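Per reviewer request, we include the raw input and output of the structure prediction for the construct analysed in the revised manuscript.
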Amino acid sequence: MRPETACIHAVRNTTHSTGAVAVPIYQSATFAHPAVGQSTGYEYARTQNPTREHVEKLLAALEGGADAMAFSSGMAAVATMMELFSPGDEIIATDDLYGGSIRLFNHVSRKNGLKMLYLDTSDLPALRAAVTGGTKAIFIESPTNPMMKVTDIAAVKDMICGREILLIVDNTFLTPYFCSPLALGADISLHSGTKYLAGHNDTLAGFLIAKSPETAAKLRFLQNTIGAVLSPFDAFLVTRGIKTLALRLEKAQENALTVARWLRRQPKVAAVHYAGLPDHPAYDLSLRQGRGFGAMISFSVDRGETARAILNKTELILFAESLGGTETLITYPVTQTHLDVPEAERAARGIDEKLLRLSVGVEAVEDIILDLERAMK
């Protein structure tokens, strides 16, 4: 089954006898037992709910995992996953990482006794040198947020093969439609389902997909114990969003490439970061390990004043802190997604007052470019 078909038909609704094509919303917190010692398979919605179960099976099928867990947000998924580790464990993470993940790692994971090390995971020799006997996981974003660096997932897996080190990949930007981290060797794939999976900027969701039944069982236990589960209605919305995932991503990616090429020609634009440009350092790698480049672009302009003027003047493009929806959104990482990252660290990674991040939507690309053109004048 091809990916675009799988988004619609990978998991059929078998929970209702009416033959409903759309999965029903089981808005129930608890479920009655037929008799003592008997169960319908559902007891309490924190443990499982039929609507949530459907979207979890769908993500497991799309990612090729043993099981998937749906959470109330992407950060709830990450926070729950970090409970796999114990005080003293070392975790290596991509240095160019979503600011919310950095905030969690620095202020919660370290408080809980984990040792966090940040480095450029696309630099394999540096990564190899950083791995020690205490390393328990490598956490990768690929492409990274916001500088769009790409890590060779299969090469990292080869490097740690034989060691008890979990390889975790944040697949939010590319989704299962464009990339399959578990097939490349990852042990866990994670998503902010708020973004491309739901796709309409109307719900929060997060997912963890485990490659092995053993890891899945540990995550399932943690999910039930901690309890930050996805609600039935939000599970329904994500399921509905995934039905158009292929259509939305193909259009958004087509728009993104056109916008990236246009940005390269603008005198006020100093740099464009998009893996779909042939001169991007990871262009060939992206082709090898995925089926697309996604629709996220970061670009630097000549001055901070220019960046702020663009943010203030766009009309079609919304100045908002998210990504992956039908609407084109523009974000200012220095004051939004990466505000909690120390200034020196931001500057070292190129996250300064001149950097803008663009989540390209599915509007007519001519209208997106016209809006940017007007804002740059």
